[in-house]
Design a protein that fits this description.
The structure is a homodimer. The first copy, chain A, is α/β, with parallel strands linked by helices. Chain A has helices at about 5-10, 30-35, 40-60, 75-85, 95-120, 155-165, 195-200, 230-240, 275-280, 290-305, 315-320, and strands at about 25-30, 65-70, 125-130, 135, 150-155, 170, 180, 190, 205, 215-220, 220-225, 245-250, 255-260, 265-270, 270-275, 310-315, 325-330. The longest helix of chain A is centred in the N-terminal third of the chain and has 26 residues, at about 95-120. The first copy, chain A, is globular and about 55 Å long. At the A-B interface, α4, α5, α7 and β11 of A face α4, α5, α7 and β11 of B.
Amino acid sequence: MNKNPNTEKAKMSTDRKQASGKKIVVALGGNAILQSHQSGTYEEQIANVKKAAKEIVKIIRAGYRVAMTHGNGPQIGNLYIQNSLAGEAVPPMPLDACSAQSQGMIGYFIQQEMLNELSKHNIDLPVISLVTQVQVKASDPAFKNPEKPIGPFHNQKEAELLMQKTSLVMKEDSRKRWRRVVPSPEPIHIVEKEVIKSNIEQGYLVVASGGGGIPVIKKKDGLMGVEAVIDKDRSACRMGIEINADILLILTDVDRVALNFNTPKQKWIDRMILKDAKKYLAQGHFKEGSMKPKIQACIDFLENGGEKSIIGTLFSAYSAIQGKSGTTITKEL
Amino acid sequence: MNKNPNTEKAKMSTDRKQASGKKIVVALGGNAILQSHQSGTYEEQIANVKKAAKEIVKIIRAGYRVAMTHGNGPQIGNLYIQNSLAGEAVPPMPLDACSAQSQGMIGYFIQQEMLNELSKHNIDLPVISLVTQVQVKASDPAFKNPEKPIGPFHNQKEAELLMQKTSLVMKEDSRKRWRRVVPSPEPIHIVEKEVIKSNIEQGYLVVASGGGGIPVIKKKDGLMGVEAVIDKDRSACRMGIEINADILLILTDVDRVALNFNTPKQKWIDRMILKDAKKYLAQGHFKEGSMKPKIQACIDFLENGGEKSIIGTLFSAYSAIQGKSGTTITKEL
């Protein structure tokens, strides 16, 4: 690898630009950074981001141009719990402010560990995390029907009490656990689109639209934050389209996409063509709020100029790019 | 004002650059965004940033090129309280992560309200907040002698209990109130210096080094966050020097600098020359951790190529630039 021409190029580049290869948007799942079996300490999250950075630097050394985004599900859940539990002492912040906080924190983790891993390979490439607002429609049906679960689980009693005391909406899941649900509106516009593009054109490694972006609506007197959480895969797809990326790489905590998931007929998929992905989606193979939005994002990306969509795990990102792991979706075989 | 040539220039600029006038670093005090008499709700902080944005847009319309930074004292204090009170449920994050969270949140507030105010004047200027790491020395004496108070006040009993139970250092203030103290090391290097500079060269309105920057030290295997808070005025000065700014404008919650503050001989100062500022500083006219670091930042800025340093209130920033309010410090009269 050390003789890789693109590494050399990056190494010797005086203006510190990325190589001129294919453009990839890498989307790190928030639950890959803070994994469900972990309590979510600082050390755990840094360690996961370190592992991800090793993989992503392999991709950069292979000559790809990388832009990054990330989820924030578990992290914003924790911020929401902290805001609730400390509510007597500190005025709780709404979800747009918490989303901005998570962009700062996760952006910092990624920025630091990417810089550290890059410097191990003598690649002198600036990494930059941008606070990103993403516009949604005030008329989005999601505001009337909140469906995205967030924060801690409650039993029915607790949930009913909370709904009496507050304006929170709680829903019961398939395992009879109650959780707050919030709107997850469609991203229609990345407010900071131009600065994201121009920094990518500068050749920098840009981290943007973290957590799906800070949800804002446009009122007559300007932008205003809203209590919502935007799906990070939808925003990653939008970012990929905006910056004319060739590849959308969604990194999560499952290695591949499966049909008939969790049934005796379960079948892992290595490659899929667009037509089949749409068919399987229609047949309901993919779980709401989990694999379904990922597949939908992959489809939208391919239907809007993308060349390839890939779903894989955080820790095998490079082999996923090579088609050795994960699920690759293309227009044709 | 509508016929201001610079406004017109901004209005008609196709490449969306700021005017080519003097370069100013504007430092918003965290305690001007979350004021001591306020509880610190989302609405209060947004309203304060809105007021600041009105003033800063006046400065931009007058043809100055503005870069911004901000403090985070009260905000990181609140994050620290939330982390402590929710510690049983959510693993508390250390100060570097909280600092990154505050950069995301306050950067978002500034970005949104600056965009809103700019668009009221048909100025199409991108605003961008950058997650910023600031390097400090592991050998900085501040780590042996933490002095920056943070978070809630305690009585002696509580403080002693906390010191027994945890590794926290608590100190008593002049009013017999106990508070956690943390190291406030000297900023030696802005890690994201190059991207800050290049985005300013692009003509964008850049918000960076929020809260003094995320404190990191350099170890053999790379950058690592530390439990510290960097003084935002010192970092603002460093940023001003790095980007060759002409003016450093420190906006806080007092209108002007005073000699013999809070004494019968108190005297407000409108203008000072560098020599006198250094003399008054040496004479101990300026309060530790309050006006002293601001004056020190103003002096350092002028001694490193700056033309003018100004201290004023958030809400009269434009008149301060004009010399109609605040305290202006220059090399010579």
